What we know:
The structure is a single chain. The protein has helices spanning about 1-20, 190-215, and strands spanning about 25, 40, 50-60, 70-90, 95-105, 110-120, 130-135, 145-155, 160-170, 175-185. By secondary structure, the chain is an alpha+beta fold. Strands 1, 2, 3, 4, 5, 6, 7, 8, 9 and 10 form a 10-stranded antiparallel sheet that branches. α1 runs antiparallel to α2. The longest helix is centred in the C-terminal third of the chain and has 26 residues, at about 190-215. The two termini are about 20 Å apart.
Amino acid sequence: xxxxxxxxxxxxxVLGANAAQAGSIAVTxxxxxxxxxxxxxxxxFTGWQAGSNAGVMNNDAGDFTAPGGxxxxxxxxxxxxxxxxxxxxxxxxxxxxxxxxxxAPGSLFSDYRLLLGVWGPGGHDLATATIFAxxxxxxxxxxxxxxxxxxxGVATGLSGDLVIFLENSNAIGFGxxxxxxxxxxxxxxxxxxxxxxxxxxFGGMGLALRGRRRTAxx
Length: 218
């Protein structure tokens, strides 16, 4: 019985560690409210790196009205990208990116792309990332409006730093512009029923092993 109890305690500890890694993952400056700016300010800012035509924008710029707070991240006109390293990836982990995406009033249509990737050693941009989830324009957004969008992927066989990429792809060559707000990242926790079954299963294995040892001793 001691062996079975020890097995249950070990399994519970492993499950507890997994639970600690599950749930919401911190995204720095997820609402793009820092620093407070006037108009549109291109370039990197708190928590985010910017490439090409991208940066942070206040409502007073007139291009977007933020669905939360008074500022948004933006990418475009033309090509632009925002990205953030959120820390070490869990190999084989499932990740869901969720956020609000807007199309500027002057855009002909939405032209954005969402990506989840992993940087290896020395990685620093999209070109050096291994992408495990990507979606181009998964929800068509009318000019001047916002929509809630999500992307889910599994980091199969990957290690390194997990990176969020928010892009205005300029895939069609027109001057579209995308806005981003309320960025969230999560990974699911195991179902409680699955935890219980695993604990009971390993406990049963411990009891069976103890019974075999008694038989061999007799």
